[in-house]
Amino acid sequence: MPPLQHVTDSTQLIRWGVIGPGRAGARFAEGMAAVADAQLDAVWGRNREKTAAFASKFGVGQVAESLTELGSSKVDAVYVATHPDSHADLCIEMLAAGKHVMGEKPAALNERELARVLAVARRCDRLFMEAMKPPFFPLYKKLRAYLKTDPIGPVGFVRAGHLDATRPPEYPLFYPELAGGSIMGIGPYEAFLALDWLGALKRVQTMGRVGAVGVDMLALIQTEHEHGMAQLHTGLDLLSKGDALLSGPRGYVVLHANWWNPQRATIYHLDGRVVELDAPFIAGGFNYETEHFCQLIRGGLRESPVVSHELSLGMARMLEAARLELGVQFPGE
Ligand SMILES: NC(=O)c1ccc[n+]([C@@H]2O[C@H](COP(=O)([O-])OP(=O)(O)OC[C@H]3O[C@@H](n4cnc5c(N)ncnc54)[C@H](OP(=O)(O)O)[C@@H]3O)[C@@H](O)[C@H]2O)c1
Q: Is 63 found in the same domain as 26?
């Protein structure tokens, strides 16, 4: 990970607000306890009772009555944790109000919507980053460092997937109007992994199955990149193990389940050596990306060198291409 530059005050307190007191919002709040010099000061939700319960559970001082109130509050940064159909508009509203914004994955409905968010971030001179956890986990950083000293050669193939049939029918991913579907669920992590190891996207081929509810229930995505190819799968009515493979000419890495919350990897070298890496995560794991985001703010940066705008656009492009190939379009697209 490249070092941050222009750090002005590495201990400046960063005050946060959250939009969307749901599951991701709760994990973000849980992680905040493990982030140095940062605190969760405000929350806004459209359901007053749920929002008040969230505030009381996590000790959040301000329950904003409206988005305008949150936008004019003293928080420096806002984490947007609603469903993907509303990500772009909410991120834009907070950026325009002068806040730095970390938006949950997928950052927007599609590439066009994400471009709109990025344009506002630039115009308002604010930091925007898609909340993409894996690269900030201790294991992922340990693996990157390990492969520098004991390489397997350039990774040329990535395989990653997860089929999850455990979700109840009311789960948001089953609703096209919330921009659901398997591709929008675990797909962003898969897109990240492929782009991070293989570089810019050149081509996408997708096979899959759309369910009666109108979202993709199974997607098999093959992608070609600058430096190799990937096979990715995601689904909502079958079960599989969520592990991933990074393959190089002199060895391969298995990122053990769940690879998007990585804490264990095995490296198999061509010469027969097998190396185990372990690095457990703490506080639910949202703390690492939050810590990174706080450091970017303190350094006066407007883009993450790890989850760059170009990387997020690449993820959005890949997910949109895969979805459109299966004929899945969302209201308003
Ligand atoms: N990074 C991760 O590990 C991780 C884990 C889980 C989810 N996610 C991502 O987080 C996002 C939310 O998922 P979730 O599982 O947390 O969903 P969730 O539990 O249903 O929570 C969503 C929250 O957003 C609110 N909301 C939804 N649409 C809204 C809108 N248009 N305006 C205002 N508030 C709105 C909901 O309010 P109501 O309660 O009133 O409906 C709820 O508080 C998704 O993009 C998902 O992919 C990330």
A: yes
